[in-house]
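From the shared-data thread, chain only:
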Amino acid sequence: RHGVEVWTVSQAVAYWLGGVEPVSAQDWLGLAEQRLLALTAGAVFHDDAGELTALRRRLAWFPRDVWLYKLASQWRRIAEEQAFVGRAGFAGDDLGSRIIAARLARDVMRLAFLIEGCYAPYPKWFGSAFSRLACAHQLSPVLAQVLAADDWKSREALLAEVYLAVGRLQIAMGIPGARAPTIGPYHGRPFSVINADEIASRIREQIADGQLRALPLVGSLDQVTDATPVVEAPANARAAIRAFFDAGD
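Structure, as tokens:
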């Protein structure tokens, strides 16, 4: 049982992309990064017709507007939950605070993949792939401290350090519209948060496609769900994302 499979390029497109290459912004948003990574990564030993190489080149990364939309949406995810690390801890729910901190750590890691222009793999390989990003040497030790922190104030302070680092990284990378990150209180309450909504809005303003810019900052398929039966059914997932956005706010 050698495990070798023989496919044509069109069969590979059918399996990994649901039969068609992405054309519209919503086509791209309906594809999980893991599937795009699987099709574009790995060694090519021979491609005399050039068909596979051309396909992989077309799918190497998101179109600019889709990338900016995903970036803005990822900052919006952070905005939604960042105060809850402190709020849960303040209410005496240390386990809840830890769980939220872990979710935010994953969101920051996904943000780092987007900033560096790399597709993120599924959970088994997520940490390994993150360790190969250029920013990992700076972020990984702090993220480990976040997960190990014994009190919510320490978690919150360490997460703030990470938020500032990725905010400054995207400015250094020349990402359009990136806003200077600042840490401050959450609506006057004693919880430290970054200006994530402002950063998201400034990035969103740089999206040239008016229809895409007008969409709610929900994000792409794997920013909405990590359920395996959903992300592993690309044709249905793409249709579901299209229907979701067509339904409006």
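The first helix runs from residue 9 to 17.
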